[in-house]
């Protein structure tokens, strides 16, 4: 007698994102090594047990030869990943150009690049054409691997055309799209030359998700004002077809951070850091080196605090960890030099022969080192000028159950809506206000710190990444069923 195979049915989930969650390095003509690159989205979806998830995306490398493509496809299959191969010109125009030079700054209220302000400029048009072409290439790979009943979940501003391309292949595909950045006010979105095409393309999805209710509202306003469609409490309606629009605030895998604090290697890091900075309060910034993160503004606020608080000068240190990204883009290179210049000036001004007030690192830290840093921090400074959510603030809170440090958080980060009651909220553009909030945080009583921390800790541990993914996918399943019922009625 053999036990029947009674494994529960697990729905297949095709996660489509610009980048796969692995980095590929070529070792030989037909050999590749792969490394999982952890990030918010990866840890969110790795923890989801209910679905059988497969990833579709660009592997981040140019592979012009067929033998190399075949070998990489095979290696990736073991990690449940499916590559989309993009050539260098497409990557340049679609990824560096349209995604990172146009949509990313626009969605963070930094405007369009000057030379692209006219809809007719050649570079804008060719970048938009490459964007559509790249989205079409993603769609073709999705379509090749799609099986009836699958759920297709498209991610982020790189793939706004994808829902339309997918529905053209198969109008019955269940398609959801989630934006990880803010969606700006419709007045900002209006300035984009391809504003209507993008909105119409993404509206082909069955469900559209944002981190906050405000972003969802901005999106619905853009559809009503720019396309003249009808906004309803459920979403946007176009000739009887409803696209559901809602907020799905992301979370982190908080248990992973909490568990890490007991790992001997992390404990050792914590001991080292405590010894190194004994007698000083530790302030921490962890960001990708991007203009939206407000790193220069944060450092200038710290300078102002030191200027105005003589007694704190040798009693506090700011550790700023900034991972370089998009290093081939001139604006990012300029930002790096600007940050170095400010840090150098402040350390020259307030440093002594034995200690400097700012330690700045231009690199990524491994997970254990990051957890140890979060755990020894007294005050975390998250001063993004705009940020879809900001997971660093969540990670800090998860690692602070022993210390109960203070979070200073930008009111322009999506996280301000969930952690606002526990954090000190600031306008990152107001350097005087941020400097004052540093003083408030450093002098806060332990009772108040405990109260504020508890508020945030409960939120971060109760709204985790898995719940976020499960809620989105089940809402997508329900939305499609409801739409079918409406059609039958
Ligand atoms: P990001 O802009 O990358 O994400 P964030 O949400 O803060 O911003 O996530 C950054 C991740 O990178 C965190 O998990 C953090 O630990 C890690 N990280 C940052 N600096 C690091 C360093 N020096 N070393 C190691 N790790 C580092 C985008 C949006 C956000 C949104 C997320 C998820 O811009 O607003 O919250 O997607 O939707």
From TrEMBL:
GO terms for molecular function: alpha,alpha-trehalose-phosphate synthase (UDP-forming) activity; trehalose-phosphatase activity. One of its GO terms (cellular component) is cytosol. Its EC number is 2.4.1.15. The keyword Electron transport does not apply. Signal peptide: none annotated. GO terms for biological process: trehalose biosynthetic process. Keywords: Glycosyltransferase, Transferase. It comes from the Eukaryota. The keyword Mitochondrion does not apply. In the C-terminal section; belongs to the trehalose phosphatase family. In the N-terminal section; belongs to the glycosyltransferase 20 family. This is alpha,alpha-trehalose-phosphate synthase (UDP-forming). It comes from Actinidia rufa. The chain holds residues 82 to 570 of 945 of the full protein.
